[in-house]
Amino acid sequence: MHKKFAITMLTMSAAMSTAALGNEIDPYDDPNILSPCGCGPVLVEWVSGDGDAPGTLSWLNPDIQNTPIALFDSTTASESSRVLLPRHYGLGERVDFSYTTAGNNAATMRTDVQGDWGQFVVVQESSKVYLVYVEDDNTIFSDDDLDDAVFRVSFCTVPAPGPSMLFGAGLAMMGLRRRR
Fold first, then answer.
1. Structure pTM?
2. Who contacts 153 (Cβ-Cβ below 8 Å, separation ≥6)?
């Protein structure tokens, strides 16, 4: 667990260093998690969460009017918790999430609601991997630590059929047609 925490802190430090160099990251920008692949599955992995801030991470299903589908409960999720979303995303399609806090002051923050964008910071780890940090409190009492939920979104590619495979399939079809 300490290793993952150190990696998370290094990633956050890199994001802050980028901001200090003039490539400012505006926390009120659209989190904008867009699929870089054509028609591929999405893997969501729980990285860490603040045990003092229980909540539920949900995927917003675009096929059912962005209905939240619970993925992880921060009190029971572990570093090995992974979910493959039951939908493939095409090139440029947006993937949205929500985080709902528990307790007396329960609140829901969503990546598809502009007023909630400040609660999410997205760092692109590679061309197909995003690390998402969630702050669960948008009041003046917020600790702004961005560690209430941290999760990784990885876009997987489904390999397209290679030219030789297509050529072989074409030859096989011609052979079947010739026999008839």
1. 0.70
2. 33, 42, 43, 44, 95, 129, 130, 132
